[in-house]
Amino acid sequence: MFLTHPKIPYLALVLTALVLPCLQPASAQGFGITAFTGYRFGGEFEDINTGSELKLSEEQTYGIVLDRQMADGELLEFYYSRQPSSLLASGPITPGALFDIDVEYYHLGGKYRMKSNPGAFYLGSVGLTRFSPGIDGLGPETKFSLGLGVGIETASDKRFGFRLEGRGFGTFVDSSGGIFCGGGGCVVVTESQLLWQFEVNAGITFRF
Description:
This protein is mostly beta strands. It has one helix at 10-19, and strands spanning 31-42, 44-46, 53-56, 59-71, 74-90, 96-114, 117-133, 141-153, 160-172, 177-182, 185-190, 194-207. It contains 1 helix and 12 strands; from the N terminus they run H-E-E-E-E-E-E-E-E-E-E-E-E. The strands form 2 sheets. It has an 8-stranded antiparallel beta barrel with strand order 1-4-5-6-7-8-9-12. Strands 10-11 form a two-stranded antiparallel sheet. The chain is elongated, with a radius of gyration of 19 Å. It starts with 9 loop residues before the first helix and ends with a strand.
């Protein structure tokens, strides 16, 4: 589902072609750092005041993963990802881009290698989603979120490798509550309870 999206960066597609033919188990070093870039899409809800359908624009992401080997095939991970985005509206009252917004994920979770194929893994995480509007008078919003994902990784030696993964995030927003509020009230009032986003990332891992 992720790989067929038409706007995923070419980097992810090129790395897929390079990685799949030579899939090997990843290194078992104790600590790892992965720097990545990717593409995020999704994030739709409705403003009940205006009737507009609101959506976060699809944009490139970048971030970092820190992991620690905990047991055979299991790792503890800290995940950070940032997306410079815009809040878009489609409706009779406020069509077009409303304002720029940065969306960040701060997650802690587990990474589990599949025993049948140690180069493949799945992920589960919990953490916070931070929305930072680029408009005067509005402060950042921080919400609880959950994440799930799958991926593959390789290691050309014991300290260096490639990683490709897809992740989905569900962020809990207030049902029938305001979002992006300031002194003059709330810009958006929504009936949504979950905001869904999906991303594909490709990165380079260093282990030590």
